[in-house]
Write a structure and sequence with these properties.
Blueprint lengths: L3 E2 L17 H5 L2 H5 L3 H5 L2 H7 L4 H12 L5 E5 L6 H7 L6 E6 L2 H11 L5 E5 L12 E7 L7 H14 E12 L9 H11 L5 H4 L12 E9 L4 E8 L1
Parallel strand pairs: 1-4, 2-3, 2-5, 3-4, 5-6
Antiparallel strand pairs: 6-8, 7-8
The protein binds S-adenosylmethionine.
Length: 240
């Protein structure tokens, strides 16, 4: 199968041809994802690893392990700098497929270059709050460090969409920030930095991801683990 940036032909939804960028991306994260120089600056494995205090590979690998076996239809909601998607593609079993969505066309173009024509992967310009895929489409869904970037209402809708498109029995894997212990050496340093640069991230310090799950879709929390003194978490949900 060729790798392509496609309109979703399977969707019943009528999608606008040009998707507007959400306000938080334009106002808070323009420098990281939207600015023409963003990819040139941030698309470096060592830099994304440094931003996660040396934990990128660890978190990538535990997320991939939680998705394994990577089979059936797999969805990654939002691109990630570094080699996460390539490693995910490496784990795809047999005739399984991987779809990746992102709202910023430049991010999809960057991913397309990184994947260099690998088979079985399709990229879609989509907003995580309105994915436009049919209910119960996917067997595995990955949200890697997206939720902390979104205002609460958007985050709730992203989770609702992730659950809606994941089939019963399917797994949703979430890696993101979490509140570290007060004794963590970074606790007092990171708080003001996040407040300044990633203002919605502190929501994940204060609240459990479960508090943003939709009420009308049955889901079970299969596991939760924290890493690096509690600064990061991996949550695995199973759609019921
Ligand atoms: C997954 S998050 C953060 C990942 C991580 N910090 C990294 O190193 O790349 C970044 C991606 O989310 C995308 N994104 C943010 N809001 C989105 C939305 N509402 N719908 C789809 N993609 C979104 C951005 O365009 C960006 O490519």
């Amino acid at each position: 199968m060729k790798q392509e940036l496609v309109e979703d032909l399977r969707s019943d939804a009528v999608l606008p041809r040009v998707l507007a960028l959400p306000r938080y991306l334009q106002e808070v994260y323009w420098w990281a994802y939207v600015h023409p120089n963003a990819i040139r600056v941030f698309e470096r494995q060592w830099l994304v690893n440094a931003i996660l205090w040396g934990n990128f590979s660890k978190l990538r690998d535990v997320a991939l392990h939680a998705l394994s076996p990577v089979q059936g239809r797999v969805l990654q909601i939002a691109c990630v700098y570094g080699d996460l998607t390539g490693r995910l593609a490496d784990r795809i079993v047999g005739t399984s497929s991987l779809d990746v969505v992102d709202i910023v066309p430049g991010q999809l173009g960057n991913l397309q270059r990184k994947l260099a024509g690998r088979a079985g992967i399709s990229l879609f310009q989509r907003n995580s709050v309105a994915l436009g895929f049919a209910d119960n489409t996917y067997d595995r869904t990955l949200l890697f460090f997206l939720l902390h970037e979104q205002p609460e209402a958007v985050r709730r809708q992203t989770l609702a969409e992730a659950l809606r498109v994941t089939a019963p029995g399917g797994r949703i894997v979430i890696a993101d920030y979490h509140c570290p212990s007060r004794w963590h050496p970074l606790y007092y340093l990171l708080r003001p930095v996040l407040a300044l640069l990633e203002p919605y991230a502190l929501d994940l310090w204060r609240n459990d991801i479960a508090s943003w799950l939709p009420q009308d879709i049955k889901v079970r929390i299969e596991s939760r683990r924290t890493f690096f003194g509690g600064l990061y978490q991996l949550v695995v949900l199973v759609r019921e």
